[in-house]
Amino acid sequence: MRAGALGVGRYLPERVVTNHDLEKQMDTSDEWIRTRTGIEERRLADDETDTSDMAYEAALRALENAGTKAEDLDMILVATVTPDKPFPSVATILQEKLGAKKAAAMDLSAACAGFMYGMVTAKQFIENAGYQQVLVVGVEKLSKITNWDDRNTAVLFGDGAGAMVLGPVDDDKGILSFELGADGSGGNHLYQGEEGIYMNGREVFKFAVRQMGESSINVLEKAGLTKEDVDYLIPHQANIRIMEASRQRLDLPVEKMSMTVNKYGNTSAASIPISLIEDLEAGRIKDGDLLVMVGFGGGLTWGAIAMRWGR
Ligand code: UT7
């Protein structure tokens, strides 16, 4: 028995904010944003919608997709750096909203690598403690901590949520291997300060290119697989140039890499599940495909997973 995905769901706010909209707000250009990041537009939540509301919408869809009920969940893990409030956790707010009465609930803070940390944590409880259904949600309302006076960062982020119900699947499916890591010495390169998000883009860029490539290769080695076995790469959607470097490291053609950063910007912990679902819905990912998911973020943190899709 192995832990794998039983179902997935996502939520994206309706409001689309294009690069041209931002041009009217700050000293930037569509051309700069597009060529430096690959982003064309992003979704931003309205004032009434908080992080837990987006998590709830994504969770409902994941439960339906998994063919299960909230009452049957054993655990809820929410990866976010933008909780409704410091406590109670988004996971407990979600537990109440869903009516997931028997579920343990906690938040996880690993920034953009949060969904990888969440999936790996779920795997431990499923494979070592007999948990049958664990809901993992990656969700961010980054717009509420964005410094709208800082063009270096304000153009990059978006809001959204992605959810996955994990449980036992067939031996040859599910999470085959993983790598998680952190380097707290890089904490000053990306953090939330008085004014909102602060980032040293160049330092994070260099770290991301190196770490995404290395971790992808490492999880393949741990699973006894090679680059040739990979059907699909789902990198954290931060910047097309970073994603391209990871794709090239795995010698994959363009059509084998997930790409939604153009439509949704960087949604931090939500970006990997949101992108995964886009590809599932489009039929680009099929049962039995070998997926490599890889993320990096503030902390600094990173995480990668090799996963055989299907139940
Ligand atoms: O989830 C993890 C989050 N973080 C990341 O993944 C970020 C990683 N880093 C990056 O993606 C890139 O470093 C950025 C996209 C943030 C920046 O790209 P870059 O090629 O590293 O640009 P740069 O920092 O070298 O900046 C070049 C210029 C600067 O002007 P000067 O000083 O050369 O005159 C900036 O002031 O671009 C300027 N600039 C902008 N211009 C127009 C910065 N932001 C903007 C903007 N519009 N929005």
UniProtKB/TrEMBL annotation:
Gene3D superfamilies attached here? 3.40.47.10
> What EC class does the entry list?
transferase
- Positions annotated as active site in the UniProt record: 112, 236, 266
Please state the pathway this protein functions in, per its UniProt record: Lipid metabolism; fatty acid biosynthesis
- Give the EC number: 2.3.1.180
Q: Which GO terms describe its biological process?
A: fatty acid biosynthetic process
Region (ACP-binding), start-end ranges: 237-241
Per the database record, which ranges form the Beta-ketoacyl-[acyl-carrier-protein] synthase III C-terminal domain? 220-309
Q: Does the keyword rRNA-binding apply?
A: no
Entry keyword annotation includes Acetylation: no
Q: Which residues form the Beta-ketoacyl-[acyl-carrier-protein] synthase III N-terminal domain?
A: 106-184
Q: What is its main location?
A: cytoplasm
Output one GO MF annotation.
Answer: beta-ketoacyl-acyl-carrier-protein synthase III activity
For this record, an example GO cellular component is: cytoplasm
Q: Which branch of life, at top level?
A: Bacteria
Record's subcellular location: Cytoplasm
Which reactions appear under catalytic activity for this entry?
Answer: malonyl-[ACP] + acetyl-CoA + H(+) = 3-oxobutanoyl-[ACP] + CO2 + CoA; 3-methylbutanoyl-CoA + malonyl-[ACP] + H(+) = 5-methyl-3-oxohexanoyl-[ACP] + CO2 + CoA; (2S)-2-methylbutanoyl-CoA + malonyl-[ACP] + H(+) = (4S)-4-methyl-3-oxohexanoyl-[ACP] + CO2 + CoA; 2-methylpropanoyl-CoA + malonyl-[ACP] + H(+) = 4-methyl-3-oxopentanoyl-[ACP] + CO2 + CoA
Entry keyword set: Acyltransferase, Cytoplasm, Fatty acid biosynthesis, Fatty acid metabolism, Lipid biosynthesis, Lipid metabolism, Multifunctional enzyme, Transferase
Q: Domains: what does the record tell us? A: The last Arg residue of the ACP-binding site is essential for the weak association between ACP/AcpP and FabH.
Q: Which family does it belong to?
A: Belongs to the thiolase-like superfamily. FabH family.
The record describes the protein's role as: Catalyzes the condensation reaction of fatty acid synthesis by the addition to an acyl acceptor of two carbons from malonyl-ACP. Catalyzes the first condensation reaction which initiates fatty acid synthesis and may therefore play a role in governing the total rate of fatty acid production. Possesses both acetoacetyl-ACP synthase and acetyl transacylase activities. Its substrate specificity determines the biosynthesis of branched-chain and/or straight-chain of fatty acids.
Q: What is this protein called?
A: Beta-ketoacyl-[acyl-carrier-protein] synthase III
Organism this protein belongs to: Jeotgalibacillus alimentarius
